[in-house]
Amino acid sequence: MDIIWILIAFACGFAAKQLNLPPLVGYLLAGFGMHGLGVTPLDNLQSLADLGITLMLFTIGLKINFSSLFKPTIWAGASLHMASWVLVGAILLKGFALLGIQYLEGLSWPALALIAFALSFSSTVCVVKLLEEKSEMKNLHGKLAVGILVMQDIVAVIFLVAATGKIPSIYAFGLVLLWPAKWVLGHIINKAGHGELLPLVGIALAFGGYELFNAVNLKGDLGALVFGLLLSQHNKGAELAKSLYTFKDLFLIGFFLSIGFTALPTLEMITPLAVISFILIIKGIMLFHVLAALKAPGRSMFLGSMILTNYSEFGLIVAALCVGNGWLAKEWLVIIALAVSISFIFTSIFYEHAHTAYAYMRTWVKYFERTQPTPEYQEQLKYAEVLIIGMGRVGRSSYDILHERLGNKVWGVESDSIKAQKHRDLGRHVIIGDAEDADFWETRELHHIKLIMLAMPSVTDIKDITTQLKMSGYEGHIAAIARYEDERTDLLEFGVDNVFNYFVEAGTGFAEESLHLLENDKEVLL
């Protein structure tokens, strides 16, 4: 039976991929399809889902700058949006109840507020999965979205304590000792090397954090997140997160499949489900205006609100508690489960085109943008002739080689402000900027730039940036990198002038450099 599950999950994920949809849409449909056909879920399916969520929260923690959580756009944005949504959501649901819609009609105000509260959370799993696929976790809107999700997780912990009466143990105060213990944990990671021990120690820390918090009557998933936060500034934090990437994604397939097994609708549920799905749009619009009021940059509030426009798996937990306590009818668990799944599909499809949508709508978005302070590092590309986008390992080495030959005509662009500052401290001319941002290109002269090199592995990002460049009137050359030959062909057909398969080129460069050894030997012999 296990092989059948794997084949069905693969087939549905593969089909979604061919339709240019994220594979998670296929996994969701696979779960609902098998449920509808009467297939019994595997005994360990929920365990796999829980493992995936725990690892995901741990890796989120590894990528978060803890101080960023104290920015008003994050803590105030999450708080104001949740509070205002519960109020507005309850009023909207009451309005539909007055129309005589089944399951809404006759509900009390507290019951309506509980439903709105369950729908106030956004999905950590869905959002992080999409951000990672597009390599946007460290972009401004990515950090904004993840920060809001973390604040929502804190609210979730408070709710669980209040609703279940599960008071944290007195030993929970001992968790403050984790702060000095992080240096011990960091030393262990350093000694683990770069092989199979590294992901193993990551898994041990993620589940260790889960069990430790669970033991003191705190939400176990919060423990995995906290352990990740403790190690977020470690020099091997990024490498540790990358080593867990495949494990996390594999286990999360179990989560998306399990959503489909939560419930199946009846005909009577279609109308309230349509209502819940419709007001999702209003939830996204409200978040956009909350972020605007808090003076978030226009692009960040547009993309951030778009990717957070979904319902959360935590809504199922809230609904289950309410049903168990007799506050809601059991049918609401089914309705909310289906609404969560529909919202996942909605976000997955629309966020795929989010950057292009912003390019066309940025004038409208700017209308709502409050006055912004001058960015910490904004510089025109005055002397640049070669521009390298993405200063990771490939971009950094390309910059250094070209700088030796062309000098100050070579500039770099990096979206991560911390990483950009490190490059500048080392003497590289690197500016902060998100190349997928239409505003970045709109405010810069490009006529003197002869070559733009896109040193990033994501095909989607390369296509987005190429589109932005063409819309900005750039007439120079565009070069990019690719990991596989089919990606190389795809990018060339899209309009990129030259694409290097860096696995092949690495071998070529290695051979050329090594030939110098033979040439030196000949000189000695002569």
SSE arrangement:
Layout: H1 2-18, H2 23-36, H3 45-62, H4 72-97, H5 109-118, H6 124-133, H7 140-164, H8 178-191, H9 197-215, H10 220-230, H11 237-243, H12 245-260, H13 270-293, H14 298-307, H15 314-324, H16 331-351, H17 354-368, E1 386-389, H18 393-406, E2 410-414, H19 417-425, E3 430-432, H20 438-442, E4 451-454, H21 459-471, E5 477-482, H22 485-494, E6 498-501, H23 502-525
Parallel strand pairs: 1-2, 1-4, 2-3, 4-5, 5-6
Helix pairs in contact: 1-2, 2-12, 3-9, 3-10, 3-11, 3-12, 4-5, 4-7, 4-13, 5-15, 6-7, 7-14, 9-10, 13-14, 13-16, 14-17, 15-16
**What is the molecular shape?**
globular
| Helix-strand category | mainly alpha
Q: Report mean pLDDT, rounded to a whole number.
A: 82
- Named at the architecture level, the CATH assignment of the largest domain is Up-down Bundle
How many domains in all? Answer: 2
Return the CATH class of the largest domain: Mainly Alpha
The low-pLDDT segments are none
Kindly state the percentage of residues in helix: 55-70%
Name the helix and strand elements from N-terminus to C-terminus, one letter apiece: HHHHHHHHHHHHHHHHHEHEHEHEHEHEH
Describe this structure in words.
With 526 residues, the chain is mostly helical. 65% of the residues lie in helices and 5% in strands. The protein has helices at 2-18, 23-36, 45-62, 72-97, 109-118, 124-133, 140-164, 178-191, 197-215, 220-230, 237-243, 245-260, 270-293, 298-307, 314-324, 331-351, 354-368, 393-406, 417-425, 438-442, 459-471, 485-494, 502-525; strands spanning 386-389, 410-414, 430-432, 451-454, 477-482, 498-501. A six-stranded parallel β-sheet has the order 3-2-1-4-5-6, sandwiched between helices. Helix 4 packs antiparallel against helix 13 (270-293) and helix 6 packs antiparallel against helix 7. The mean pLDDT is 82.
